[in-house]
Design a protein that fits this description.
With 316 residues, the chain is an alpha/beta fold. Helices cover 44% and strands 14% of the residues. The strands form 3 sheets. Strands 4-9-8-5-7 form a 5-stranded parallel sheet. Strands 2-1-3 form a 3-stranded antiparallel sheet. Strands 6-10 form a two-stranded antiparallel ribbon. The two termini are 37 Å apart. The structure holds fe (ii) ion.
């Protein structure tokens, strides 16, 4: 089964001191790379037979483990951003005090681990050990190492690609900014699930009240030559900052639907996307459906398309 790109769960333009450009580049390039790597390795593993040398099989299984770890950790990372990190809720404070003595002691160790990785690579993780029934801070190297039977509930990416666009080599400033943006509600939900021996909740930003399609479904339809009208509905202020579109798409101003709706064919389905799939694409999709079109929005928007390695074309 192919691994699909998940829509970015955090609204990347809302973060405090972490730029939209950096977060989106991280999502599209590094998270996307991990998903594409896992799909490539899975294909190679499917072709393994009795003649495959042991060293080759070992390398493939190591790459599979690293790609899978990178996918999971990046999804958890983006999913634990978007909050007011310096305002730790009372119940979370009590949890940290129970396991670390004081909130300050927890933070000192967590931030200290992050700073110890400055200039290097790795993840810092607050994890719930199901065996020990308690929280630990630890380092995960190579996207893989983790406590045995431990659920990661707060993860911090300390690979340089996570911060060099905004901070250069100043990892300390990045860690400060990360801590300001921690979504403690997400961490609380994860601890609640892990400590009750349930799977970690999946962050799902998708509006399920409307029909949608994934970027992989759209790519498959286009590859088969099925007729689809692909509509870029990013707001004018957003599109003015970019030079490319999803290949085959046309851009139309979402604020002027009445001016261009007559250009669309009612005989072919319409796939509508915006930047990340949070709002604008959905609202244009809703309008088109009200006017009788078979319209669906693209989950994760153009960012998910690029993360999946989708083709782009220059805006003219
Ligand atoms: Fe990363």
């Amino acid at each position: 089964m192919r691994q699909e790109i998940l829509p970015i769960p955090v609204r990347p333009w809302t973060l405090n001191g972490l730029s939209e450009r950096m977060i989106v580049s991280h999502y599209e390039n590094h998270y996307g790379d991990a998903v594409r790597a896992l799909n490539a390795v899975s294909g190679e593993l499917a072709a393994v037979d009795v003649g495959t040398p042991g060293y080759r099989l070992r390398a493939l299984k190591r790459d599979e483990l690293m790609a899978l770890g990178a996918i999971e950790l990046h999804e958890l990372y983006f999913g634990n951003l978007g909050g007011e990190g310096n305002k730790i809720p009372e119940d979370m404070r009590a949890t940290l005090e129970e396991h670390f003595g004081t909130v300050a002691a927890w933070r000192r160790e967590f931030v200290g681990l992050a700073q110890s990785l400055a200039g290097g690579s790795g993840w810092v993780v607050l994890g719930w050990s199901r065996r020990q029934r308690r929280l630990y801070n630890y380092i995960a190297d190579d996207d893989t190492q983790t406590g045995i039977d431990t659920a990661p509930v707060l993860v911090l990416d300390m690979y340089e690609h996570a911060y060099h666009i905004d901070f250069g080599a100043n990892a300390t400033a990045y860690v400060d900014a990360f801590m300001r943006n921690v979504d403690w509600a997400a961490v609380t939900r994860r601890i609640g699930a892990a400590s009750a021996d349930r799977p970690l909740p999946q962050d799902d930003p998708v509006d399920h009240s409307l029909p949608s399609l994934s970027v992989e479904e759209l790519a498959a339809r286009l590859a088969k030559g099925e007729p689809v009208q692909v509509l870029d509905a990013r707001p004018r202020h957003h599109i003015s900052r970019t030079v490319d579109l999803m290949q085959g798409a046309i851009w139309r101003d979402p604020d002027r639907v009445d001016e261009w709706i007559g250009e669309l064919s009612t005989d072919e389905p319409v796939a509508v996307y915006c930047a990340y799939g949070f709002h604008v694409g959905c609202s244009v999709t809703r309008t088109l459906r009200e006017r009788g079109f078979d319209a669906r929005f693209i989950r994760g928007g153009v960012s998910a398309w690029y993360a999946a390695g989708g083709a782009r074309s220059l805006r003219t």
